[in-house]
Amino acid sequence: MYRLALLAVVLFCLASTLVATAVPAVNSTREVTKRKYTTAHSLGEAYTFDPRDGWQSINATDLQSKYRRSTPAPKNGISALLDKFRGLAGIGTANKAIVTWYTGHDLDNPSCWSNTKWHPTDESFVCATTLLGWTTNKPKCFDFVELCNGPSKCTFTRVVDTCAGCKTGTHHLDLTRAAFSHLGNFDQGVLNVQVRPASHPADWFEDLWGPKV
């Protein structure tokens, strides 16, 4: 009886040790995965922005108002990018656009949700967009988009808000500081970039993109 009790204690201690070891390992793996989505990516210096690949030109800015409601890239480089981001990839027709960045209380109450306790932070990868002015591929609530300022400065963001303060009839996306920092310097304020629709990621981080819908 004593031996059985001793064996039970040993097994319990061993199991506790294994669990304690496994939890940090899982958390560490998840942090490595998350870091992929919070690091700017490159399409390769030889990449050209062809509308047939889904690109549009837009402007990016540092607007601080509250919203209420053709040399192809090497195939191996693109394949590596798709593998890195696990399902998150640019698709569809491209546009030119303006991008800016916003912060502070402007991050509160993202209008894509009718009622949510979540709101982005400066470290999130989300954006607000104009309601009018898009002729094709208008970003809609909860869509992901890929933004590039040249082929070497690219990032992904999720649409979670509308930009009532942006100029009507323009291709305009207002980004969080983290997303904007992948495209240019904050002092630049306004950037003209390329944007295209993107697929949804295989992994999910609510602090980066908000709740799933």
From TrEMBL:
Origin species: Mycena indigotica
Q: Which CDD domains match?
A: DPBB_RlpA_EXP_N-like
**Hey, what's the signal peptide range on this chain?**
1-20
| Protein's name according to its UniProt entry | DPBB-1 domain-containing protein
Keyword Cell inner membrane belongs to the record? no
| Protein origin, superkingdom | Eukaryota
Which keywords does this chain's UniProt record carry?
Answer: Signal
